[in-house]
Write a structure and sequence with these properties.
- By secondary structure, this protein is an alpha+beta fold.
- The protein has a domain at about 85-195: 2-Layer Sandwich (Alpha-Beta Plaits), CATH 3.30.70.
- The protein has helices spanning about 1-85, 90-100, 125-135, 140, 170-180; strands spanning about 115-120, 145-155, 155-165, 185-190, 195.
- It has a 5-stranded antiparallel sheet with strand order 4-1-3-2-5.
- A hairpin with a 2-residue loop joins strand 2 and strand 3 (about 155-165).
- It starts with a helix and ends with a strand.
C-alpha cells in the first residue's frame, strides 16, 4: 500500500510539473505576442508619420520635377559657354561680323514662336551645331530654318540658336516635346533674330 501511495504521489508531482511547464510556455508566448504587437504599432505609427511628411513635401518635389528639364538645358548651355570661353578672340571677332550683317528679319506677324536649342558665346560653333542637330534628327527639322539671336548679358554677347518659326506656342511646344524625347534639350522662345548662314 505504501508503494501505491508513493506511486500516486510521484504521479501527481509529475503531472503538476508538466502543467506548470505548459503554463510557463503559454505565458512566454503571450508576452512575445504582446511585444510583437507593440513593435508593429510603433512601425505603423512611424509609417504614418513618414506618409504625413511626404504629403507635406510632395508639392515641392513635383515643382522640382517640372523645372528639371529647364535646368538641364541651362546647364548644357552653361557648359557650352565655359567651353567656348577658351577660344581665341580673333575667331570670335571674325564670326561676329558675319552674323551682324543685316538680313531679312525672321519674325513675322504670323510666326511668333521658335524652339531654342542653345545659347553660346562663340558664334563660330553655331553652323556646325545646327548641321549636327538636323543631321541626327532630319524628320523633325525638315521644314525649319535656323535662327540666330544675338543678346548681351553683363556686357557679354551670347548667340541663341533657334529652329522655327511656328504660328502658335502649342506647335512649338509639340516639337520641343519630340526633341526632349530624343534627348535634345530645348525651350520655347520668341522667333526673333536673323537667319543663320551655314
Amino acid at each position: 500500500m505504501f508503494n501505491n501511495y508513493c506511486f500516486l504521489l510521484l504521479l501527481i508531482v509529475a503531472l503538476s510539473g508538466c502543467s506548470n511547464t505548459q503554463q510557463a510556455q503559454q505565458k512566454t508566448a503571450q508576452q512575445t505576442l504582446v511585444t510583437q504587437q507593440a513593435m508593429l504599432m510603433d512601425k505603423v505609427e512611424s509609417l504614418e508619420q513618414d506618409i504625413e511628411q511626404w504629403k507635406n513635401v510632395a508639392p515641392n518635389v513635383q515643382r522640382l520635377v517640372a523645372i528639371e528639364s529647364e535646368l538641364t538645358l541651362l546647364i548644357t548651355q552653361l557648359n557650352a559657354i565655359i567651353a567656348q570661353a577658351e577660344k581665341k578672340e580673333h575667331q570670335k571677332n571674325s564670326a561676329i561680323t558675319q552674323i551682324n550683317a543685316p538680313k531679312n528679319p525672321i519674325n513675322s506677324t504670323n510666326r511668333n514662336y521658335a524652339v531654342q536649342l542653345a545659347s553660346i558665346n562663340d558664334p563660330t560653333v553655331l553652323p556646325s551645331l545646327w548641321i549636327k542637330t538636323t543631321k541626327n534628327n532630319p524628320n523633325i527639322f525638315k521644314e525649319m530654318e535656323p535662327i540666330v539671336e544675338k543678346i548681351s548679358v553683363n556686357q557679354r554677347d551670347y548667340y541663341r540658336l533657334k529652329a522655327g518659326s511656328f504660328g502658335s506656342k502649342s506647335e512649338a511646344t509639340q516639337v520641343c516635346k519630340k526633341l526632349k524625347k530624343i534627348a535634345v534639350n530645348c525651350l520655347i522662345s520668341p522667333a526673333t533674330g536673323e537667319p543663320l548662314d551655314y
